[in-house]
Predict the structure.
Amino acid sequence: MAKALAKKQIRVNGVAPGPVWTPLIPSTMSKEKMKEFGKNTAFERPAQPAELAPIYVFLASRNATYVTADVKAEIFGATGGRTPF
């Protein structure tokens, strides 16, 4: 898709965030789960939305005019060093 859209100056990128604290989190899990939410990251806490916003702003900006996917995809991982356990 990136190759096909490049001629139209359309870039193809994605962001794969790890745990992010949002107002909906308390309504989606138990208090016990909330205490552990984000503990499996290097920072031992979930991200705040403002910490991820710069990635999206960068990708939408003129500074990222040469950032696009290769044959598969260009995905920016913003996981806080999340570990599988």
Notes: The longest strand covers residues 14-17.
